[in-house]
Each structure stands twice: as C-alpha cells, then as structure tokens.
Amino acid sequence: MVVIPAMDIRCGKFVHVLSLPAWEELIGNDDPVDVANWWKKQGAEMLHITDLDGSFRGRPENLDVIKEIINEVNLPLQVVGGIRNLKNIEDVLNIGVARVVLGTIATREPKLVEQACREFGDRVAVGIEGRNDMVAVEGWIQPTDWSIMQIGQYLKELGVKRVVFNDTRRDGSLKGPNLEVAKKLAQEIGLKVVISGGVSSLEDLRQIAALNDIGIEGAIVGKAFYKGAINFKDTLTL
To answer: Any residues with CB less than 8 A from the CB of 188 and at least 6 apart, and which?
Structure first.
C-alpha cells in the first residue's frame, strides 16, 4: 500500500488549511521544495499536490514550482487542480508529473476523459467526490443525478483505470474514510482506488492496507499528518 502525503500550493507557497504542523522541522516553512524534500527524507514514495490557484481559476497556475519540486526532489507527483482540458493535461504531464487527477470536469466532458485515457493511459486518474452516496460538484455542495457507483461504472467504460475517492462528508473531519463505498468501487466496478479524506489514525491506514488485494491501492493523507495524529514513519511498515 502507498501512503501519499498531501501538499497544497497557493501563490507558489506551501499552505495547509490548518498550518500547525506537529513537527518542528515544518513550522513556518512555506517553501514547497523544502517541504517535499522533508517528505522524501521521511520515506514518502509519492506526493499529492493540489494547485489551489488552479482550482479557483480553472487552469494550472503553479507549474513552475511543481517543476522545481520534480527537478530538485526527484519524487513522483500526483497533481490536481485546474486541469480541465487536454492541453492542461499535456502541460502538466510534460513537466514530469507522474499522474494527473481530473476533477469535476469528468462529469461534464466525458469525451475529454475518454481521449485523455486513450492518449495517456495510467497517468490519468479521476477524482470521485461523493455526498450522501451521490456525486457532488461545485465545491462539493452541488449534488448531481449520478450515484457514486453509476459514475464509477461510467468512468470505467470511458477507459479510466484509477479513481481518487473522497467522501466529502469526511474530508478534513478525521472521522475515518468511507471504506464501504471504496470497496464497492474496487470489487464491483473493478477500479483501482486511492482513498482521500477522513483518514485519522494509523488504524484507519491498517484497515486500508488490508484491502490492498482487492484494488484499494492506498490513501492520500493531509490533516492527520499536519496535526500530528499520525507519524508518517509509522506507516512505512504497513
């Protein structure tokens, strides 16, 4: 199982919703390269980067600093935020990003998803954000007519191999991930699943690791690390 630390970037700086890291090494440090290097030293195999400016403006906005992380840290990056057309995907992948995650655009432009999967294969994942078992868009507050399982099946038919699943009721809540829905996406639909949102403890990660054989690949963890609820080095033996 892979445990992927999350990093948010805004205006070229590392930020976090609760920027109160428990470890002295990170207090006050907003240099994304330094933070990424710190994660590499802890043993991280991949980082999940959210381009916050890109999310708000609808196009990638922090490619220079993301490229700097790739060049200086040499760690695979998974990037989300503002990636809404084929050129955006190409621009992000061309700087050396390992994987892009398409967001709400996937529910609106299925032809884009299909073409992206055809051209870039496993380097494209799609985020599924759900609320009350329904897919939600527009900052997680606007429900759609799609159930999570329906969109999972539809994405698979478009060629998607991997999804990043986030139950928005649990994101940032430290209440534990929604494993039941994640298991259905993996077992019933046949998707590779990375869980995002809700991980609060090492026990949560142990439960996710136990599902690795059915296609639950791992988890993205942010708040639990930065609040000190989980020490990353304790995850290395999972």
So the answer is: 149
pTM: 0.92
CB 31 within 8 A of CB 9: no
Q: What pLDDT does 86 receive?
A: 96
Contacts for 124 with CB less than 8 Å, ≥ 6 apart: 89, 99, 100, 102, 113, 116, 117, 160
Domains of the chain, first to last: 2-235 (3.20.20.70)
CA distance linking residue 173 with residue 168, whole number of Å: 9
CA 4, chain centre distance (Å)? 8
Q: Are the C-beta atoms of 166 and 197 separated by less than 8 Å?
A: yes
**Stretch (H or E) spanning 206:** helix 202-209
